[in-house]
């Protein structure tokens, strides 16, 4: 099962809002996706694992986890940009067969 981590700099309420919207969007996928809330500090932990991150803050590329901006979803300016990015990355990961 794929894992999508939601990371926000504005606090728990913001990440909970985005996580709920991402869960709702992903509910129709053939393969289930686990959506979790995380902090930037969680990402730095050697024990942290996620297939991709939806974030409202800058995440260093050196972490090696694909990142999609959550700002369009948070601001409701163009949520489809975030959803399309998540779908595209999940589809690519599935096609590559990476765990």
Protein architecture, described:
With 99 residues, the protein is of the alpha/beta class. The chain has a single domain, classed as Rossmann fold (3-Layer(aba) Sandwich). The protein contains 4 helices and 4 strands. The chain has a 4-stranded parallel sheet.
Number of strand elements: 4
Name given to the CATH architecture: 3-Layer(aba) Sandwich
> Mean pLDDT score, rounded?
90
Ends apart, CA distance between termini: 8 Å
- The topology string of helices and strands comes to EHEHEEHH
Q: SS-based structural class?
A: alpha/beta
> Low-confidence parts lasting 5 or more residues at pLDDT below 50?
none
CATH class, named Alpha Beta
The main pleated sheet reads as: 4 strands, parallel
Strand order of the largest sheet: 2-1-3-4
CATH domain fold name: Rossmann fold
Approximately what portion of the residues adopt beta-strand conformation? 15-25%
Rounded radius of gyration (Å)? 12 Å
* Number of self-contained structural domains: 1
CATH superfamily: Response regulator
User: Looking at the structure, what is the overall shape?
Assistant: globular
List the total number of helices. Answer: 4
Keywords summarizing the entry:
single chain, 43% helix, alpha/beta, 99 residues, four-stranded parallel beta sheet, Rossmann fold
Secondary structure blueprint with pairings:
Blueprint: E1 2-7, H1 12-26, E2 33-38, H2 40-44, E3 52-55, E4 67-69, H3 71-75, H4 79-96
Parallel strand pairs: 1-2, 1-3, 3-4
Give a short summary of the structure:
The chain has 99 residues and is α/β, with parallel strands linked by helices. Helices cover 43% and strands 19% of the residues.
């Amino acid at each position: 099962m794929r894992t999508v981590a939601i990371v926000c700099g504005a606090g728990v309420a913001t990440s909970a809002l985005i996580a709920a919207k991402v869960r709702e969007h992903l509910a129709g996928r053939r393969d289930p996706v686990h959506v979790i809330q995380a902090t930037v500090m969680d990402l730095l932990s050697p024990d942290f694992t996620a297939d991709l991150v939806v974030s409202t803050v800058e995440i260093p590329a050196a972490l090696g986890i694909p990142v999609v901006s959550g700002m369009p979803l948070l601001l409701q300016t163009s949520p489809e940009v975030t959803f399309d990015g998540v779908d595209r990355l999940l589809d690519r990961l599935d096609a590559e067969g990476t765990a």
